[in-house]
Amino acid sequence: MAFLSKYGEARVIQIPVIKRAAVDFAIGADWTPVGGDVRLSKDGGAFANVTNLPTVNTAVWVFSLTATEMQAARVDVAVVDTATKAVEDTMFAIETYGNALAQHAFDLDTASTAQTGDNFARLGAPAGASVSADIVAVKADTAAILVDTGTTLDGRLPAALVAGRMDSSVGAMAADTITASAVAIGAIAADAFVAGAIDAAALAASAVEKIISSVSGTADASTATTFDDAARTEADADYWKDAIVVFTAGPAAHQPRRISAFDAILDRVTVDTAWTTAPGLNTYIILRTAMQQAAGAGATDWTASERNQIRDALGVDGTKTAATGGDVQDLQARLPAALVSGRIDSSVGAVATGALTAAGFATGAIDNAAFNVTETLTANPATGGIAAASFAAGAIDAAAIAADAIGTSELSTAAANKIADSTLRRTYANARASADGDAVNFRSLLGAVGKLVNKWSISGTTLTITQEDDLTSTAPGGTQALTATVGADPITAADTT
User: Fold this and answer.
1) Residues 51 and 11 placed together within one structural domain of the fold
2) pLDDT given at position 144
3) Which domain holds residue 311?
């Protein structure tokens, strides 16, 4: 059990003590306390004998604690009979108040005194004479509000909330209330506009440019076929491929070009056709490739001035004159009059290295008539015009050469000698390692040559011919069985006559 007492003041506690091995309260005849039977601990410290031993008043024992013993936040008193036990062990605790060192600093004996410190800070000073007076004032203000709003607020508040919000009618809105982030994606749909709500007059010239362009920017560096712009941070390779780019200022202004590649690492745009000169560090726009206005309904919504703005942005002026128009005006002059077998009739000015592959030649496409030995290959081409680099690896294979296309007249003596010399001088090792021709075999010309030039040896009746390493006898090396004739003359020499 616990008692509340003031810090540092003497205290008398009266409690019953149970007789040993019984349920009755002990009386004076049952127990005579001696030193050590009652001990005291202050704030969890070591227990020590109390100053005053308890006395009995009938069946209630009186414990008188001194002011010194009460100088603690918590005082624990234990009753433990040290002699032959006459009473049961018991204890009680005292929590103190009214001192900064007490268990409870607040002084209960002076509760009517004006409060300060933590208690005061939590409650706050009253605005009026007291807290009670403040409450009365609040009640008066509340009554006045009820009068101003018609006694109740029911007539001025909606009957129910809508999705947790008050249903209201907006009569006015402050400037800049609706921002871009306030409008949800897709919030303004097509059916939100009345037909014809956005007419030509509603679009500024800058809006026209915005409609026909995907992005705009300024080049940081340029060549005749490329430009860099650090603002092009699109992450995908070839993000802008096949779009149209038009510089709006500088030496290459109004020269639309198709984008053939985009390097996301270098922020570099490459066009398929060079500008007449490098565009320089000038402004540009990138146009959507499918940007065109269908004829018919709606075409007349654009004024002549607006149509000219769109055409000028594409490099074509409204009247299609050479004065301000772009490169797209003279397309008719640049296109052939008719197609040939469904293809544009064109003159090939150059062929890229390796462009002519084996698949590009029909079987028999290169025959005798395709070569004019004295004119076509000698007189007409520039020196070195038809070089090895003009043909891709394997471009001219067996299927590409017609039967008898290369005859004696097409093969010069020098060419024939070169073939023969290369054959005769080719090493045995290179011929053996080559993947061309039939599989290597001892019964071949290569095997016969090996027998003439490579090491051979006889063991018993077996003749062994090795490869060029003088060790390996597998094909094109090999073995032959020998037959000897007893008494025949031996061969001692061989001389070519």
Assistant:
1) yes
2) 77
3) 302-332
Burial zone of 282 (CB within 10 Å; 0-12 exposed, 13-18 middle, 19+ buried): middle
Cα-based distances in Å from 30 to 58, 91, 338:
11, 18, 137
Let me know whether 61 and 8 are in one domain: yes
- Count CB-CB contacts under 10 A for residue 136: 12
Residue that has been written with the tokens 């499918």 in this structure: 290
- Residues with Cβ within 8 Å of 274's Cβ and at least 6 positions away in sequence, in order, are 224, 225
Q: What is the pLDDT of residues 407-435, one digit of tens each?
A: 777 788 888 889 888 888 888 889 899 98
Q: Above 90 in pLDDT, residue 491?
A: no
Query: What is the pLDDT confidence band of residue 369, given thresholds at 50, 70 and 90?
Result: low
Residue 95 and residue 9 share a domain: yes
Four-point Cα dihedral 368, 373, 377, 378, nearest 10: -170
The pTM for the full model equals: 0.28
Residue 117 falls in which region: left (phi positive, over 0), alpha (psi -120 to 50) or beta: left
pLDDT of residue 303: 62
Sign of dihedral through CA atoms 76, 81, 86, 88? Answer: positive
Distance CA 466, CA 453 (A): 10
Contacts of 485 (CB under 8 A, 6+ apart): none
Q: What are phi and psi of 460, to 5 degrees?
A: 65, -120
Q: Produce one character per residue of 307-339: b if its CB has 16 or more CB atoms within 10 Å, e if not.
A: bbbbbbbbbbbbeeeeebbbbbbeeeeeeeeee
Q: Are residues 282 and 318 in the same domain?
A: no
Same structural domain, 100 and 11: yes
- CB within 8 A of 315, min separation 6: which ones? 246, 254, 255, 256, 325, 326, 327, 328, 329
* Residue recorded with tokens 């005859």: 407
User: What's the CA gap between 273 and 328, in Å, rounded?
Assistant: 13
| HSE-CB of 118 using CA atoms within 13 angstroms | 4
Residues written for the chain: 497
Do 83 and 132 fall within a single domain? no
Distance of CA 274 to the CA centre of its chain: 35
Alpha-helical (H) ranges within 152-269 are: 205-212
CA dist 11 and 64 (Å) reads 6
Examine residue 103 and state whether it is found in any structural domain, yes or no. yes
Would 88 be classed as within a structural domain?
A: yes
What tokens were used for 295? 């004829």
In a shared domain, residues 30 and 102: yes
Q: How many domains does the chain divide into?
A: 5
Within a domain: 82: yes
Residue 252 falls inside a structural domain: yes
Cis amide prior to 476 (ω within 30 degrees): yes
User: Per-residue pLDDT for 211 more than 80?
Assistant: no
